[in-house]
Specification:
Blueprint: E1 3-9, H1 13-24, E2 31-37, H2 41-53, E3 57-60, H3 66-73
Parallel strand pairs: 1-2, 2-3
Helix pairs in contact: 1-2
């Protein structure tokens, strides 16, 4: 069963790198990661690059709010479990 993990972030590319690295070490055979980012400027660029580096999907959400960000990530998920 495919799982989707949504990570929301805003101006915390350092923590995002740690989270993506930890997920890359998981042994579940079928999962995807969706990064929903509300960062601006250089932090946005870093988040995009990290998502690409770890083969995660990237979605920019300019509006602020954790629930809004999670909901913005849902259309990008293909897993049966989110």
């Amino acid at each position: 069963m495919r799982a989707s993990v949504i990570i929301i972030t805003r101006n915390h590319s350092g923590y995002l790198a740690e989270a993506l690295a930890a997920l890359s070490r998981q042994d579940h055979p079928d999962f995807e990661v969706v990064v929903v980012d509300s960062s601006q400027g250089e932090e946005k660029v870093k988040s995009e690059q990290l998502a690409a580096q770890f083969q995660a999907k990237y979605a920019f959400e300019p509006r602020l709010g954790q629930s809004l960000a999670r909901n913005s990530g849902l259309p990008h998920c293909t897993g049966e479990i989110v």
